[in-house]
Please model this.
Amino acid sequence: MAKVLEGLYYSESHEYVRVEGDFGYVGITDYAQHELGNVVYVDMPEVDDEVTAGEEFGAVESVKAASDLNSPVSGTVVEVNEALEDTPELINQDAFGNWIIKVELSDKSELDALMDAKAYEEFTK
Model:
């Protein structure tokens, strides 16, 4: 069974956001990496790109499929996880420990539209 961590926010498209102050760390959930299989490539935006809640910001490719990444929050990309460029399989090893982008949040009220851990567990059953 896939891990779901408390204290994160989850989207219906299986991205999570971990909020620290005015920043959100966005990645794909453990459930999503299980469904995808072995991740072979992560397409990420550039630093200073704007992301919008519910809109595509990149993609994850696995040996089975490619899946668009949809941002659960809006804001400005302040960092990308460069380790994933050379070692995309880190997502399979620890989806929650290997975020994809760090975003400066422009509207924290958007978090209210996302699921908490309990709701996401129900959603993925």
About this structure: Strands lie at 9-10, 15-20, 23-28, 39-43, 50-51, 56-62, 66-70, 75-80, 101-105. The longest helix spans residues 30-36.
